[in-house]
Design goal:
Layout: H1 2-5, E1 12-17, H2 24-37, E2 42-46, H3 54-58, H4 68-74, H5 79-85, E3 87-88, E4 94-96, H6 106-118, E5 122-126, H7 137-140, E6 146-151, H8 154-177, E7 179-184, H9 195-202, E8 208-212, H10 216-219, H11 231-248
Parallel strand pairs: 1-5, 1-6, 2-4, 2-5, 6-7, 7-8
Antiparallel strand pairs: 3-4
Helix pairs in contact: 2-11, 4-6
Length: 255
């Protein structure tokens, strides 16, 4: 188990929320920071259409005024120039935020993917809660693991059907087979829905189900410091990271 948890992140991991406020951005940062503290080279990428808040949520070391638009417009650049465009977490994750000067287009992600591949850098993409946008085509063209985040609420569990349908319609059964449903508890009073019921319902439809417990630091709404997360939360991100690695390697068994 320990060896499995130490597997590096895939070159690309897609994090999708089942609904607005699901915790996709928080989970993307958690996965990226988990890889970074192990010494991995990783960039958390804003893959929302007009720009999200991944840098504002996670850049507790450096918040850059530049972003993804400038990186792809600059073309091939030296590593130090690339780093200058990135925000950074204290855990060592680089963040490429979309600053919102234009809406996302597919060519940007073709260019960015090539740049990260040349640098041998893993990317955790925060997709927000929409999967079918045309600009995401370069990210969906490869069999990347999908981490589908759903809050632990009955209404959110009901919306999960639509999110899974979106994955199935866009990517077919192979897409569902590489989906790790991740239940995020955002209630300090405890788990409001029995996750085992969800496991029973989704059994055989997705790769697996993981859980992330409530964390007081995340619940405060301040800039996230990975070192201040509870040990149980960091362990949960390790499990989700290991699951993503297993999916990328084609291992059918749960981690």
């Amino acid at each position: 188990m320990t060896d499995l948890l130490l597997q590096p992140l895939p070159m690309s991991t897609l994090v999708l929320g089942a609904c607005g406020g699901a915790g996709a951005t928080t989970t993307a940062l958690g996965l990226a920071n988990t890889a970074a503290v192990r010494g991995g080279a990783v960039v958390a990428v804003d893959a929302t259409p007009a720009g999200g808040d991944i840098a504002e949520r996670g850049a507790d070391a450096v918040l850059s005024v530049s972003g993804l638009e400038q990186v792809v417009a600059a073309g091939p650049v030296a590593d130090d120039v690339f780093d200058g465009y990135c925000s950074r977490t204290s855990a060592g994750t680089r963040i490429l935020n979309r600053i919102g000067t234009s809406t996302a287009v597919s060519s940007e992600f073709h260019t960015l993917a090539a740049s990260l591949r040349d640098r041998q850098v893993s990317a955790v993409h925060d997709l927000g809660h929409r999967l079918r946008a045309a600009y995401l085509a370069p990210l969906l063209a490869t069999p990347s693991p999908i981490v589908l985040v759903v809050p632990c609420r009955a209404d959110a569990f009901n919306r999960l059907r639509a999110a899974l349908q979106s994955i199935g319609d866009t990517l077919g059964e192979p897409g569902l087979a590489r989906t790790v449903v991740t239940v995020s508890n955002q209630d300090a009073t405890g788990w409001q829905v029995d996750v085992d019921l969800l496991r029973g319902y989704l059994g055989g439809q997705v790769w697996g189900i993981e859980t992330i417990p409530y964390d007081e630091h995340l619940g405060m709404g301040i800039v996230i410091d990975h070192a201040r997360l509870a040990p149980q939360t960091r362990a949960a991100y390790e499990r989700v990271s290991a699951a993503a690695s297993a999916v990328a390697e084609g291992r059918p068994e749960r981690v």
